# Entry
Amino acid sequence: MPLLFFSYLHLYVRNRFLYWKKRGVPYVKPVFPFGILKSIGSTKHSSQILTEAYKELKGKNIFGGIYFFTKPVVVPTDLDFLKNILVQDFQYFTDRGFYVNEKDDPLSGNLIALSGHRWRNLRTKVSPTFTSGKMKMMHNIIVDVAKELQNYFEPIAKHNEAIEIKDILSRFTIDVIGNCAFGIECNSLKQPNTEFCRIGKKVFEYTAFEYFNLFFLMMFPNLGHKLKIKINKSEVTEFFMRLLKETIEYREKNDIKRNDFLSLLMQIKNTGKLEGDDTDLGKITFEELAAQMFLFFAAGYETSSSTMAFALYELALHQDIQDKAREEVNCILKKYNGEYSYEACMEMKYIDQIIKETLRKYPIVDFLVRRCGDDYAVPGTKHSIEKGTFVTIPVYGIHHDPEIYPDPQKFDPERFTEDNIKIRRPFAWLPFGEGPKNCLGMKFGMTETRIGLATLLSKYRVSISSKTGIPLALEPASLVMTPKGGLWLNIEMVS
# Structure
């Protein structure tokens, strides 16, 4: 009986692996029974696997095929086709297809994961909390935390010590988000073992099996629901639900108002409106509020700290670029009497170029996912994408395509001057996605990273230490791009 079962299973999988061949679509040869996912989360990061597929498929068609387990997945290899998916024909690709199980895992019902009407309705409600005006409100909070980061490095820099900088930057971003999102002073820089720090690390602590399991749940969500599988750890969910319930009750009881995201979402929860705006957005539930606050914490914590870490690594390798950045920061600070005002930080164009080039070379979210909502005829071809088929956009592969970015391994902020951006084809830079489902927190993330880098460079120089990994290795089981084993750099005072 077992032999009969495995024989049937083998034939079923083999037949599924004929999907792209039967349709005349170029494809990457799958490995039984995982498709291209055999090494993901264990020996290779997703960015490496999808880039290999992108290179193999490019030039054969405007898209090719791969397999996640037995499921066929589209890999776009043409930027014009990308435009169709992300913008022009967005109505076919509105969903990401992420696993959502709000009953057993309430924090999974966030904007990144929700689909269809639920996503559209919630996005409309939450979007007004991310306007430039709201970002400006939080600017001084970020500056205050950045000054604490600057002070933290002073005793270390006086001895020109090598330090593991990624962990410190993670504590900085936790303090920023704790203040800007929850109105809580986490003091993670001074006290690295706070509950916020511990829980923050747990959000992204995945074994290779758990990472592999995320792909499985995307492909087979119904099975996940039947088995009541959660993607968030129970300890993480309990912490955030308890924290938010207690904080909201305290604020409402004592009529406390703050310029943070929680306050804005509380207004929508209670009245369906934001103060000073008569637009009726419609109320949200406590669970919806909690899921969005969790998303803001998770996305802002890891992505910004990793971006800063990768940027400092490249600046340590390229002292001339670091000197130019420091000169810009100090020149602008002199103009604004030493204050990191909103206007001063917005003038730091070269710092912005460094951040954008960092995100080009190290896109923290290395691929985008969409799920086709209806049968879609691919323009200019005889092919169609069937309803329910996943599309995986290899951001890292596109960012390292020598036909788009010559000498892609070279770190060159000049790629992002206004003139060079204009002559480059659209949809060639995708760290925040594009179109209606682009990242809502982009402005906040850029602001946090810009201020963090500027405050450090104005006072300190970073350089390579004997402990620095060259080239950097990536953590295979991380959901985002992050250096394996941390990132060691020397730091010294600027003379």
Remarks:
- DSSP finds 19 helices and nine strands in the chain.
- The chain has a mean pLDDT of 91.
- The radius of gyration is 23 Å.
